[in-house]
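Sharing in case it's useful to others searching the archive later.

Someone asked me privately for the predicted structure of 3-hydroxypropanoate dehydrogenase, so I'm posting the question and my answer publicly. Question first, with the sequence:
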Amino acid sequence: MDTLANAKAAPLDDAGLDLLFREGRTFSGFTAAPVSDDTLRTLATLAELGPTEANSLPGRFVFVKSAEAKAKLVPLMSEGNRAKTEKAPVNVIVAYDLDFFENLPKTFPQVDARAWYAGAPDERLAFSASRSTALQAGYLITAARALGLDVGPMGGYDAAAIDAAFFAGTRWRTLMVMNLGYGDRAALYPRNPRLDFDEFARIV
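And my answer, the predicted structure tokens:
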């Protein structure tokens, strides 16, 4: 028996759980410390490893760092999000690709999975792609925390205008925008309450 292949993975200790969840916060303010391109590549590669529908991997991440790219993005955010978007070291446009199925011969070679989606109406493609991309956004947040980064997901932006500015000529569609960097904990507000277990979960 291959004992390594069948070995049970050790759970994270409390320090690891604190890093990813208990002490993980939504940040609006960040320090001026830069985030390297190598770190962003590692982050994206980790986020890609999580499960998606038929391993379709429809998520597309655009890491906005340059002054030129920020000048395009910031005016497309809602007024309350512009200052923090401009100041964050990196902004991440999380999009989904309506043509995600074209990669299925590579990412799901066991069967002709492309045929499951090719020719489907955009509404169906958007449902599948946005659902899996939302998962990938969650993986991105968790991976960022694991790498010592902090994240501030935001609502409040003109998705159609972002699509036009960054994704013209493609079938990519904006799902959300996040700020990324090394968070300024001094700027955090007290954590808002969470629901008790019985209010949102049940064991049956």
